[in-house]
Amino acid sequence: MKQEMPWHSRFDLLGVTFLLFIIGALGSLPSIEGSGRDLNYLGNLSRFASQFFPPDWSILDRTLEGLFETVKIALVSTFLAIILSIGLSICAASTISPRWLLWPTRMLLNVIRTIPSLLWALLAVVIVGSNPLAGVIALTFYSVGYLAKFFSEAFEAANTDAQEALRSLGASPLQAFQYGLWPNARPIIWSHCLWMLEYNVRSASIIGYVGAGGIGLHLKLYAESANSWNKFSLVMICILVIVTILDFIGEKIRKSIRRKLEGNSSK
Amino acid sequence: MQPPLLSTQGLGLQIEDRWLLKGLNLSLNPGSFVAITGSSGSGKTTLLRTLAGEITPEIGNIDNQLDSPTKLAMICQDLQLADGATALTNVLGGSLGRHSFISTLWRFPPDERKEASRLLSLFGLAEKEDQWTSTLSRGERQRVAACRTLITRPLVLLADEPVSSLDPFWADQVLSNLKSTIIKRKGCLVCALHNDEQVEKFADTILRLDSTNPEGWKIETQKLGIES
Predict the structure, then answer these.
(1) Chain B contact set for A261 (CB, 8 A)
(2) Could you tell me if the ipTM is greater than 0.85?
(3) Which tens digit of pLDDT belongs to each residue from B3-21?
(4) Can you give the residue range of the structural domain that contains B12?
């Protein structure tokens, strides 16, 4: 006869974590207070939202120019971050690097990740002034923190059999890495690069807010000028369009990579 | 008569506490095809890995007369291919030992590419050389692994069930190509095989392992009958 499991056996680590999360969220509710004034929230929202429409198309040319600059900042910073991240990720991958190199690199990446993109942008503006270069510097550093971590995880997860086989057939460690491990990790790494590029276009739209170039500066100007919310909304629409296009292209490429990689699972 | 390329004297192999083989004397002579047969668990893979130098035998010696470790190569059962690389690049990987890192950083030398293409054609994969190996069938991947090992130009080729996923036509083709290539350069091909027809068709020497008795192995030659 099947023995009944005790009631508490279903609380594994995942279950307990989820339970603590629910308790924490509910417990935090009482501390979320409004202003205390009797405001008509819905009325306020509809009055504010109505100022966004109709969008002001007369500033389209200027907006597209800003958007173009944003995309350029994202492209350059992602490119630089990829180059820096490949080297750092090799140092941070436990399957490749010795311990004395592994932990300092991981610590460095942790520190880089701790600083949000807006703060990187502020730091860069202080150093190089208010221009697109500040945006490139800020997003490069910000992206390296994430990309190097993702890449090192891709190297650790990749199948090392081919690398070992090539070593036994006479290849040097670098050659075995290039032709044995890299091809297995490369599809995942490219997928992360695409994601980072999409993410950087979004971030580059915001960092302009603190003077690091791109469309963010337009957002700041319109948000702070009187009766410019219809211009603000046009900028938002343009950002939405570019991000959606990138998302669509990225997903198509990722799907094709997945299909190629999963090709042998059915055989 | 030429001396054997590799020979074992009184070889004993053990896995955990179980003896797989005891007292094996085997000679891998130039220009020969040695088939290793036996049921699953009889020690075929362990013996091949021991001959390849990956495992140290519990007892006995291996006398290796090859002048370079790259003269000995092995096709493993799990193939060990790079899934995200093309069939051609995988095959070319076997030639890396002959070139420096710099010379293969961007692309392989033209003569190596030609040789890899020729091998893939020989094994019926000319149309698939630019496909990622992850998109190939198991049988095709097995042939890519065989090509990658052949391009290293080994003198002793150890193959662990190299045709297990192939249809009879391609199994015969692969064994015939492996045998002719190795024998042409006066080498020795050692294959773990399950199929008796293939063994009788291609092998000069047959080592039959007995999973119930570590000392019950037999070496037969196709012409001379039971030798020991």
Answers:
(1) 83-84, 132, 134
(2) no
(3) 888 888 888 888 888 888 8
(4) 1-66+155-167+185-228
